[in-house]
Amino acid sequence: MEQTRKGYRLLQDLLVVVTTLVLLLTLWHIVAITFKKPYLPSPVLVTLKFYELLSTGFLLENILITLKRVVIALSLALILGLSSGLLASRTRIGNGILRPVILATYPIPHITLIPVLLWILGVEWSKIAIITIITYYPIALSTMEWAIRTPREYEDLVKSMGGSRLHLLTYVVIPYIIPGLLTGLRISVSTAYAIVFIAESFVLTGGLGALIEESWHRLDYPAVYAYVLILSALGVISYVIVWILEKAYTIRLS
Amino acid sequence: MKLVIDSLEFKYRSGDTPVFKSFSYIFEGPQLHVILGSNGVGKTTLLKLIAGVLEPIKGSITLDGKPLTRGDIAYIPQDNELLPWLTVYMNVELPLRIKGVNGDERRSRVLEALKTMGVLGYASRYPKSLSGGERKRVALARALASYSKIILLDEPTANLDPRSREMLWSYLKSLAKDKLVIVVTHEVSEALREGGLIHVLAGRPARIVDVFEGGESAWSRLGKVIDYYKIYW
Q1: Tell me: the pLDDT tens digits for A53-88?
Q2: What residues form DSSP beta bridges with B27?
Q3: For residue B142, with 0-12 CB atoms within 10 Å meaning exposed, 13-18 middle and 19 or more buried, which class applies?
Q4: Chain B residues with beta carbon closer than 8 angstroms to that of A161
Q5: CB 3.0 to 4.6 Å from A204: which of A146, A210, B36, B77, for a disulfide?
Q6: CATH number of B2-79+148-231
């Protein structure tokens, strides 16, 4: 009963999403054929372009380059964000030194660091580094905030069993902060795809960002749209994956 | 088994009247002890001090002459007695894991304890899907599986229906046959009815003002116990 109702609701939600997408595409098509501007190709043209690009194999290659950069950067951000967030909230030294540093460097417009990173790290790693830096903050901040709020009673329980600091971390703090961590990661994931475009369009060494930049200069508008849509789709898919993980974890606990 | 509390002193904030000052007491076991007292008198504080969750300013707590090691005690707080992100099985297993007990022994002890407390069927469920009474029984199973000699329970029957209360008390009495069980409650009638050795905690700084056996004969004390609540608070 409960199961069928949930299934029905999911179907309804899906229907809303599909209808909205169809409506948007129709609207796009109407606007495109009405105004007939080169910078606004119709979705039909973009789709045709997409198939043309897909058949070359070179599109897939560049998608993989972009994905690789995003995955490496997000993994680094996750490791650094989680560990520094825990240190900043769970140790006295971290709380005294690391926490103010994280909070003070957060509002800096990090994207402006690209030229500096380029000198220091070279072309490839500067791209990864800028994504890492920007996606690091949501993860570190949510880890910090959640770790501070860890309920005392759960810590007391593990302490009364003779648990060490490591036990507290593995059995209480980390399981408690996972929902917050995933929320931070969800924000980071969608940001990562925005940043990867900027990073890849700076010095063109492959990836969807470079392709967008290149097609733009060639005035190949259908290609620009096709690449932008692919990049967006990657963003949406990654976002949904993290969102599902988040839901799956919290459902168990409530 | 002798749990000796010697000249304990504790306060939450400096400047406050201490909750305990020169508090000395002995709990002997195996036995069911019930600490009665009004809200805020220091019952939970006393349990947390024994459990090692709070540190006293002064004084010591020893078991048979030796300082308490944390694994000696199973502490069951009033709420949040289980970790919500672990299954029932993993919750019961936790103290054994912390102690470093090996896999086979751990498994057999956990299963045995779950069976004794009648919660074996819930092994793979998460605490949120259990009723209050079931959660308490799982917490008791955890106490039973661990090697602890002392079990501390804070208001274990709060928010339980009458049937679950009765069941819980019978489990507590059977556990008290070979462990030192200390239950803290403010519910006078329940404590008097269910028995065990009743200690009345009152005053600030708190002290034990009366000790008597619970059960049928204790009903004559009802008026007096209620007076303790009024006088000392």
Answers
A1: 988 888 999 999 999 999 999 999 999 999 999 999
A2: B3
A3: buried
A4: 70-71, 74, 94-95, 98-99, 146
A5: A210
A6: 3.40.50.300
* A167 vs B163: CA distance, rounded Å: 36
Give the minimum alpha-carbon distance from B100 to chain A in angstroms, rounded to a whole number: 11
| Spatial separation of the C-alpha atoms in residues B127 and A247, rounded to whole Å | 18
* CB within 8 Å of A90: residues ≥ 6 apart: A147, A169, A173
Mean pLDDT score of chain B, rounded to an integer?
A: 90
User: How far is residue B118's CA from residue B109's CA, in Å, rounded to a whole number?
Assistant: 14
Tell me: the pLDDT tens digits for A157-182?
999 998 999 999 999 999 999 999 99
- Looking at residue B129, the DSSP 8-state letter turns out to be G
Tokens of B63: 């078991």
Chain B residues touching residue A160 (CB < 8 angstroms): 51-53, 70, 73-75
Burial letters A55-66, b for 16+ CB under 10 A, else e: eeeebeebbebb
Contact by Cβ (8 Å): A98, A87: yes
For residue A253, what pLDDT band results from cuts at 50, 70 and 90? Answer: confident
Pair type for strands B58-63 and B2-10: antiparallel
B185 φ/ψ angles, rounded to the nearest 5 degrees: -155, 160
Contact B97, A162 (CB under 8 A): no
What the block records as the tokens of B32 is 């069911």
Locate tokens 């070359």: which residue?
Answer: A56
CA distance B156 to A234: 51
Please give the Cα distance from B216 to A177 (Å, whole number).
49
Q: Which CATH number fits domain A39-253: 1.10.3720.10, 3.30.200.20, 1.10.490.10, 3.40.50.2300?
A: 1.10.3720.10
Contact yes or no for A252 and B77 at CB 8 A: no
Instruction: Name the token pair of A155.
Output: 């810590």
Residue B9 near residue B23, CB atoms below 8 Å: yes
Phi first, then psi: give them for residue B20, nearest 5 degrees: -130, 140
Within an 8 Å CB–CB cutoff, is residue B45 touching chain A?
no
pLDDT at B232 over 60: no
Interchain pair B126, A158: CB under 8 A: no
Domain residue ranges of chain A, discontinuous segments joined by +: 1-36, 39-253
Identify the DSSP state of A228: H
Q: Note whether A228 and A46 are within 8 A (CB).
A: no
Asked if A175 and A157 touch (Cβ cutoff 8 Å), the reply is: no
Question: What confidence tens digit (pLDDT) does each residue in B189-215 have?
Answer: 888 888 789 999 988 889 998 899 888
Q: What is the CA radius of gyration of chain B?
A: 18
ipTM, two decimals: 0.87
